[in-house]
Amino acid sequence: MKNQKFEIVTPQSNIGWVGKKVTGAHNGTIAIKEGEVILNDGKLAGGKFIIDTTSIKILDVTDPDLNAQFWGHLASDDFFSLEKYPEAVLEITSVEGNHVEGNLTIKDITHAIGFDVAVNVNGDVLTATGLVVVDRTKYGMKFRSGNFFQNLGDTLIYNDFELNVNIIAKAV
């Protein structure tokens, strides 16, 4: 069995996020700080990714003042508590076919998570894409969640948010 390690090329890799609410959605990006992908006999076998939560950007709010206000709210304890927890970590624990199981840690809270991934290797370059759906309430983000607050009406924010992950990694 041949193990091969790939390091993430962070400037070329990205995560797009989408958070939905009753009246619409917001979207943006968040950066991968560092990470690696492990292949065993050419098949995905493991990996670990450190996400720089302080890099979160909101792309759909174009007014600078509103964008800064929204960013401040995402940085607050209502959501990511960025001052206390500037990183999130995803560690792959098992892979079966194209389905990945792993542990996602946000705000020092870890939960198992599963998602599908597409991996392609061309020479010494690996590309991987996947959609990770995260229940924010498992990580202490209960703000305007219908699970914890009643009568929110059109101010309700859905519990799940999506991470569209696009990784480029180079063999080391």
Automatic annotation (TrEMBL):
Recorded superkingdom: Bacteria
Q: Which Pfam families match?
A: YceI
UniProt-listed InterPro entries: Lipid/polyisoprenoid-bd_YceI (IPR007372), TTHA0802/YceI-like_sf (IPR036761)
The cross-references to SUPFAM superfamilies, in alphabetical order and at most eight, read: YceI-like
Any idea where the Lipid/polyisoprenoid-binding YceI-like domain is?
Answer: 5-170
Which PANTHER family does this chain map to? PROTEIN YCEI
Protein's name in the database: YceI family protein
